[in-house]
Amino acid sequence: MNMRRTLFAIAIVAAAGGAIGIAQQPGNVPTAADPNAVRVYIRAGLKSHGPGLHDYPQYLADWSKVLTEHGAVVDGSLHAPMAAELANVHVIVMYKGDAGYMTDEERATLDAFVKRGGGIVSFHDSLCGPDPAYMATIVGGAKKHGERNYSAGEMKYTITDKAHPIMHGMSDFTLADEAFMKMTWAPSGVHALATVPMPVGESKGEVVPQIWTYEHTVPGGQPARAFVWMQGHTYTNFADARVQAMILRGIAWAARKPIDTLKDVVKTDRSQN
Predict the structure, then answer these.
(1) Is residue 240 part of a domain?
(2) Each residue of 231-252: pLDDT tens digit?
(3) Region for 69 from its dihedrals, namely left if φ exceeds 0, alpha if ψ lies in -120 to 50, beta otherwise
(4) Which of 152, 187, 209, 210 is exposed most, by the fewest CB atoms within 10 A?
(5) Closest CA to 211 of 126, 123, 88, 89
(6) pTM for this one?
């Protein structure tokens, strides 16, 4: 069953217009020429919205290339990772609708990854599901599926910690996307990097963190980090130069690597393509 799901994922990603190096056997983790490279697993999913929105398969295709060109070792799929696939991974990047829906086995795998200090990066509704209190323990904050807890429009970001390395060089900016509110927060709270006032609806004007970090330690485990950007409803925003640089820094931070690890693009010769 796992093999069929993996092959199905490969077919969908290829159809999305990008070929990536997904492991076809459990535990077949690619190795890097640089032993200090960030090892990333992209947890994507099937597309859930109309054109240009929630394009999880396209993210898997595009960002496998982006991250590889920035020196990372990348694996990923459209299904939840198995333990063997995470054996050598530093950070899981989640861009999958309602990723909070997990089987007991999938949840146990994620818990074990976090307990050993594995990093998490979460975009948009990856933190949505049936149990926001649990998901908040993983990424710091979460929202419950089925509630009207979103507000779409112009995101007017106020950067609340310009000194944080993830926000290096960034100023307040505006982006058209979708924000979330009615959040469930981890008991220890999160460290807000940027807030947004809700643009429309009954919660218009309510200021809610939309970019944050979360550091915690599972009892008996190693310190773990999570970085969250709650936008990504509109897929083209991932190509925004400010956002892309922030995400690269966020991935390195969550992986406990130097903040500029993914800064320099690896030049590749595509003349034969």
Answers:
(1) yes
(2) 999 999 999 999 999 999 999 9
(3) alpha
(4) 187
(5) 123
(6) 0.86
